[in-house]
From TrEMBL:
It comes from Mycena metata. This is P-loop containing nucleoside triphosphate hydrolase protein. SUPFAM superfamilies: P-loop containing nucleoside triphosphate hydrolases (SSF52540).
């Protein structure tokens, strides 16, 4: 008898540079059967009418919402999270932000215990989709597909410092913060 696949979709949101991608990658390494689903921006972001730059900050047009919703609905219906979900994150600087080994081991142990409980309780195989982005809680249809929501908070000074460390970002084209963008 084959196991039924049960998807669990987790939203990881917060301001830009708050640590969402880092948390998602750490969770992916600790959780079996998981994949990071980046909330990539639309291919062609609109141009801001005043600043004449790509407009990441207008939520209705920054993300291809129908495409993201369709993708998440398909994940929930089929229980399959395609590994080919396109993301450009691998082209960005990949800084290693390690977790203390005892903390990592504790969480890995906790997750293994939970999986062992589920294994004895039924015939389900759990897969996890970690939806990471700065706008996952803007669209009610996306929220409806999430089984769990995480929101990262960080101080203004912390955000500012992280942003100035990473002012170049690849999303299909190279983005460089214009002068005073963060401010």
């Amino acid at each position: 008898m084959s196991k039924k696949t049960r998807p669990i979709v987790v939203g990881i949101g917060g301001a830009r540079c708050s640590g969402k991608t880092t948390l998602a990658k750490h969770l992916q390494r600790m959780l079996p059967n998981s994949i990071v689903i980046h909330q990539d921006p639309q291919e062609l972001l609109p141009i801001h009418p005043v600043h004449n730059i790509r407009d990441w900050d207008t939520a209705p047009s920054a993300i291809d919402w129908p495409r993201l919703v369709e993708f998440l609905v398909k994940v929930k219906v089929t229980g399959e999270i395609p590994v080919h979900h396109r993301s450009y994150d691998h082209l960005n600087e990949q800084r290693d932000l390690p977790i203390q080994s005892e903390v990592r081991d504790q969480w890995v142990g906790t997750f293994k215990s939970l999986l062992a409980e589920r294994a004895t309780a039924g015939d389900e195989e759990i897969v996890r989709g970690l939806v990471e982005g700065f706008l996952p809680y803007w669209n009610p249809e996306v929220i409806a597909q999430l089984d769990m929501r995480i929101y990262l908070r960080i101080s203004h000074d912390g955000l500012c410092g992280h942003r100035h460390e990473r002012c170049d970002y690849y999303t299909g084209t190279l983005w460089h913060d214009p002068p005073n963008y963060w401010e």
